[in-house]
């Protein structure tokens, strides 16, 4: 930090600032150009990208259909389990006998 605040050699501080700005420009320049090209293409996406997006929409619709079928099957399994539990409950409890009672 002393280089930037040195009153005797202010050109060293300015040289450091210029060197940093140059380095940042060299590093971020290609990234900025690539980002600008990518954003410019978003207005007119190519046909391959459109086809891929359409395919993803189709697959998403299929997944929604499969999810609703899965929910229906889960409800059926739950219902079947409740019916089986009700059918087995009297057998587990047993029939009360008159000897065990009063």
Question: Any overview of this molecule?
Answer:
This protein is mostly helical and 102 residues long. The protein has 2 domains: 1-44; 46-91. Helix content is 77%, strand content 0%. The protein starts with 9 loop residues before the first helix and ends in a 9-residue tail after the last helix.
Provide the β-strand percentage band: under 5%
The 3D shape can be described as: elongated
Q: Total strand count, please?
A: 0
Q: Give the topology string: H per helix, E per strand.
A: HH
Taking the sheet with the most strands, its summary is: none
Distance from N terminus to C terminus (CA atoms, Å) equals 98 Å
Q: Rg, please?
A: 37 Å
Helicity, in percent?
A: over 70%
Estimated structural class: mainly alpha
Tally of distinct domains: 2
The residue ranges in which pLDDT falls below 50 over 5 or more consecutive positions are none
Average pLDDT, to the nearest integer? 77
- How many helices? The count is 2
Condensed summary:
This protein has helices at residues 10-41, 47-93.
Note the topology.
Elements: H1 10-41, H2 47-93
Which terms summarize this structure?
mainly alpha; 2 domains; 102 residues
